[in-house]
Amino acid sequence: MTETFAIPCAAALIRCEVAGQPCVLLQTRHKPGAGIENALLELPAGKVREYESLFDTLRREVAEETGLTVTHIGGEAETWRGESLGYAVQTSEPYCVTQNLSGGYSILLSTFLCEAEGEARGSTESHSPRWVPLTEVLGLLDTQPEIFYPMHIGALRQYAARICADVGHVFVYGTLKSGQRNAAWASAVAAPISVQPATLCGFTLHHLGRYPGVLPGGGEVSGELLTYPPEALGAALAHLDELEGYGGHNHPDNLFARELRRVTLPDGRTVTAWVYVYARPLHQPSPVSGGVWQDDLPLAFPKRSHP
Question: Largest Cα–Cα distance in the chain?
């Protein structure tokens, strides 16, 4: 009986912050002979050549598939290297290891967290490399896992879920601020452990009638950063989602989308926070001068009711 062995491969989960949003690089699979797997979303990855360092594999594959230059690989600096009895050996710790037990051909995939520089471009094996926000990745994994290359789903889900779960800050800029009419809603399920002034840059505050909304723009929005205890974060977000009309990623009835964005504190430090961004078409823009909301601001157009 002939034994068949798994093929060692390496994948790069490349991280970057784009317009204040934590993102990862995804590309569209387009490999010769891949059949139905072509057009799936994937990470840059490839086979490890004989005696090739995993780190050299990552740099080579990322350059070949995306044109990017890898500048950092998680765990590389801590790698042990040694020689004995004619063996040159290295021991490293990847972010995670994935193995397929059926389907395709047998692969043992080591995924590493990476950073890179340059302008991403396609190749003969992939196309349309782009930075995708983690909240969008997690939403797609929940609703359309079939659009991802199966070997990369676990690493993406694990990373996106961990990063999102670690964000205990919520930036509020309207009726949830201290002294505004829905301030009590923010602490009804769990009280924030801190409330401090903060600013959201690169957005414009719009007057929508009885409440405001932010959309990407060139301004600054003043608000407050609420920090919740980790054990209460899930319940607090669910309660805020209810008020903001957020039903999940790309839900057709969403009034607001919950996104991760960078906000600035008074001392100049920046932190990643959840921000509710208006998700409906803005037919009649009404920017709020100065980016500061008060419940008694004069209406710019006839009053609308909150759904």
Answer: 82
Predicted local confidence at residue 299, as pLDDT: 59
Q: Of 45, 54, 50, 47, whose CA–CA distance to 25 is shortest?
A: 45
- Whether the CA torsion 187, 192, 197, 198 is positive or negative: it is negative
CA dist 82 to 49, 51, 87, 91, 268, Å? 20, 14, 8, 9, 45
CATH superfamily of 169-291: Gamma-glutamyl cyclotransferase-like (3.10.490.10)
**Do residues 138 and 26 make contact, with C-beta atoms less than 8 angstroms apart?**
no
What average pLDDT is seen over the chain?
A: 93
Q: Phi and psi (nearest 5°) for 191?
A: -80, 135
Structure-token match 């100065």, residue found: 290
pTM for the full predicted model: 0.85
CB atoms within 10 A of CB 122: 15
* CATH 3.90.79.10 domain extents, the chain: 7-165
Is the pLDDT at 31 greater than 80? The verdict is no
* Superfamily for domain range 7-165: Nucleoside Triphosphate Pyrophosphohydrolase (3.90.79.10)
Distance CA 143, CA 80 (A): 40
> What is the spatial distance between Cα 278 and Cα 288, in angstroms, rounded to a whole number?
14
List the alpha helices (DSSP H) in 45-177: 54-66, 134-143, 150-165
Q: Are 276 and 209 in contact (CB under 8 A)?
A: no
pLDDT single digits (tens) 273-286: 999 999 999 988 89
Q: Give the 3-state secondary structure of 145-198.
A: HHHECHHHHHHHHHHHHHHHHCCCEEEECCCCCCCCCCHHHHHCCCCCCEEEEE
Residue 32: both structure tokens together: 């010769």
Q: How far apart are CA 220 and CA 205, in angstroms?
A: 8
